[in-house]
Amino acid sequence: MNSIASDSYVVHFKEKAYNALNEHLKDANYSKIFILVDENTHDLCLPLFMAEINGDYSYEIIEIEAGEIHKNLETCAQVWEAMSELDADRKSLMINVGGGVVTDMGGFIASCFKRGIPFINVPTTLLAMVDASVGGKTGIDLGALKNQIGVINQPQMVLVISDFLNTLEERQLQSGFAEMLKHGLIKDKKYWTELQMLSNFELMDDFIYHSILIKNEVVLQDPTEQNLRKILNFGHTLGHAIESYFLESATHETLLHGEAIAIGMIMEAFLSKELTGLSVKELEDIRTTFLKRYKKIVFTEEDIQAILGLLKFDKKNSHGNINFVLLRSIGNPEIDIKIPNNLYIKAFDYYKV
C-alpha cells in the first residue's frame, strides 16, 4: 500500500509505517522522545507500538485520562508541566498514540510547547485514521464547545496501522465509519454505495486508504479551510452542536463523535432537500443508511432549543452568519448556505419520524 503525500508530511501504512518511523528516528537525533497516550492506548496499543521500534532512544511516556471531556486546557497544562519536569527541550519529539482526542490535543500541545516541537501522529481508532490523520488540525475544546482553541500545524508523519482496530469495541468502529460515509456523500457516490454494502469491519485497509485519499485531495487544495475544505464539515454544524450538548448534559448519555455527526448528516440532508435540490430519493437513502447503523436519539423541545443555541459557536460562522455545507446531490456539495430559522425545527421533525 503506497504512502500518501500530504503537504509537508507523508501518511504511511502498516509495515511501511514502522519502517518510516525507524528511519526517521535514526536520522533525526532527537534529544528525547515523549509518547502521549491515554489510559486505554497505554494498555492496548503502546506495547504493540513499542515492540516495533528499533534503536536505543530516551523515552518518556505521558498518560492522560481518556475521553472528549478531558480534551481541554487543564489537561494540556498538566502535560506541559510534566514535559518541563522531564527536561523536554526544542529538540524533543512528541509521538501521539491514540484516537482523535490524543492526536488533536497532542498536536496542539507540541505546537505550543517552547513555541513548537515536532510531533508524529499514530491514530489508533478508525475515526482518527480517516479524519484526524490528514489536515494538520490540532486543538482542544472550550468547555463543551468542540475544537474552539487550536492551530493548523503539520506533523512530521502519520502512521496508519490498522492492527490497532482490533482493540476497539463495535461502537467505536461505528463512530469512525460515520466519517467514512461522509466522505462518500461529499465526494464519491460510488464509494458511498460500496460502504453501504459493508456488513462488518474486517478487511478495512482499502476503505481506510480511500477515505484518506479523499480527505487529502480536499486538504491539499485548501489547507487553511477558506473554501473547498469546508465540505468536510457536512453534518458537523448540527452534529457538533448535538455532540457538545450531550457532552455537558447531566441527564443524557454522552454521544461519540460519529454518532452525533450521523444525526447531523440526516438533518443536513433534509435541509439539502429543502434548499439545494437534493432529491427525495437520495434523502431517504441517506436517512435509511444512518438509521440502520446508529441508535435513534429522542430529543425533547428543551434539548432542541439548547442545541440550536450552540450553533452560534460553530467554527465556520462568519459575520454573525451560521454557514452550512449542504448537498445538491450525493457527491456534490455546496458551501456557505444560510438556513431560514423555520427549517431547523423541521429538520429535527424529519429525524424524529
From TrEMBL:
> Which cofactors does this protein require?
Co(2+); NAD(+)
Q: Tell me where in this chain the 3-dehydroquinate synthase N-terminal domain is found.
A: 62-174
PANTHER family reported for this sequence: 3-DEHYDROQUINATE SYNTHASE
Which is a Pfam family this sequence falls into? DHQS_C
User: Gene name, please?
Assistant: aroB
- Parts forming coiled coils: none
Q: What is its EC number?
A: 4.2.3.4
Q: What class of enzyme is it?
A: lyase
Domain 3-dehydroquinate synthase C-terminal: from-to ranges: 176-317
Species the sequence originates in: Sediminicola arcticus
In its UniProt entry, what is this protein called? Answer: 3-dehydroquinate synthase
Query: Which GO terms of the molecular function aspect are on file?
Result: 3-dehydroquinate synthase activity
* UniProt keyword list: Cobalt, Lyase, Metal-binding, NAD, Nucleotide-binding, Zinc
Q: Which Gene3D superfamilies does the protein's record reference? A: 3.40.50.1970, Dehydroquinate synthase-like - alpha domain
Domain of life the protein comes from: Bacteria
Q: What does this protein do?
A: Catalyzes the conversion of 3-deoxy-D-arabino-heptulosonate 7-phosphate (DAHP) to dehydroquinate (DHQ).
